[in-house]
Amino acid sequence: MITRSPQAVEPDTWQRELREAYRDPLRLLADLDLSALAHTIDRASPFAFRVTRAFAARMRRGDAADPLLRQVLPLTCERDVHAGFVADPLAEHAQGRGALLHKYHGRALLIASGACAINCRYCFRREFPYGPSLGGAAMHRAFGAIAADSSIEELILSGGDPLVLDDAALADLIARAGAIAHLARLRVHTRLPIVLPARVTPGLGRTLRTTRLRIVVVVHCNHAQEIDDDVRAALARLREAGATVLNQAVLLRGVNADVDTLAALSNALFDAGVLPYYVNVLDRVRGTAHFDCEDARAAALERALRARLPGYLVPRFVREVPAAPAKLPLAEATRDDP
Q1: H/E segment holding residue 299
Q2: How many Cα atoms occupy the beta-carbon half-sphere of 100 within 13 Å?
Q3: What are phi and psi of 203, to 5 degrees?
Q4: Geometric angle at alpha carbon 34, from 30 and 39, rounded to 5°
Q5: What average pLDDT score do residues 197-224 get?
Q6: What is the C-alpha separation between 204 and 170, in angstroms, rounded?
Q7: N or C terminus: which one in the chain shows less Cβ crowding within 10 Å?
């Protein structure tokens, strides 16, 4: 693995780390003694390469099959055309509501940022048109729509990644949400506590502690190797701030699509104070076919986990289907395989 010193929790540490993230996949491969893989890399991909050094530090040097590396490398095979893999698998682009997506009853999703600390190659929003969703006017309209709809009890901050916003900007969003009387919960979907644990600053903790809203943080971790001491400390700081911390993973061929790996992930999450929540089957955005797993394999993995782990450690295997009233259990969500 790439050597790295433990991180102090200073207000600007995470922003410095964000600036210092790898932007060239060949530089990362060289640091991992994997330059022989250079011929597999698409350096001109329209979906930019980005990975934090904190996340790269957990990759195994010299291992071309490292499960963390596989999640971030822009491969030439992403340009291959596969039936059923499209730009907008969840039909979000056509909703036309700017920063606000209102898919499910009682919940609304706010696109708080278009940026992430790392660009996961399987991201279902890798082609999302963020431009119209961001900016002060878009946020003003979004909060106006939320305030006008008393059926909305929970606001979900998503992106991109909402924790890419600094503490002041995030505190402003949370304060605006807290001022809407019918909102009871705020859910934050984020990968930063995993890939950039220094982001969980004292200022963020204070913001989460002072809102009247119940806070749920849903982190995104796909493999137990992603959890190190810095991550465990960041997750502990979130819990100390009063947040309920859950995890959702994505089922990825070549990364975690076997029962031993998924069981190890559930155990590592629980040891870090996080409950496994969802395993999402892959949203078929174009460029991601090399990660796809057959439904039969996914269903078999869920059954095997239930046989091995206590129920509270078994995440629900789900698929998001456009126009469905909620994420659907795998057994209820059908997909026509090509």
Answers
A1: helix 295-308
A2: 21
A3: -65, -40
A4: 95
A5: 97
A6: 8
A7: C
pLDDT of residue 182: 98
pLDDT at 296: 94
Q: Give the residue among 165, 81, 76 at the shortest CA–CA distance from 121.
A: 76
pLDDT level of residue 246 (50, 70, 90 thresholds)? very high
Question: 219 φ, ψ to 5°?
Answer: -90, 170
CB-CB neighbours of 215 under 10 Å:
19
The whole-angstrom separation of Cα 227 and Cα 259 is 18
Does residue 1 carry a pLDDT above 60?
Answer: no
Diameter of the chain by CA atoms?
A: 57
Domain ranges of the chain: 13-79, 93-332
Mean of pLDDT values over 256-267: 98
For residues 184 and 225, the answer to whether their CB atoms sit within 8 Å is no
Token representation of residue 154: 């929970």
- Are the C-beta atoms of residues 214 and 241 closer than 8 Å to each other? no
Instruction: Say which CATH architecture domain 93-332 belongs to.
Output: Alpha-Beta Barrel (3.20)
- Are the CB atoms for 160 and 124 separated by under 8 Å? no
pTM for the full predicted model? 0.93
Taking the C-alpha atoms of residue 198 and residue 177, their distance in angstroms, rounded to an integer, is 25
* Neighbouring-strand partners of residue 51: 22
Contact of 68 with 32, CB cutoff 8 Å: no
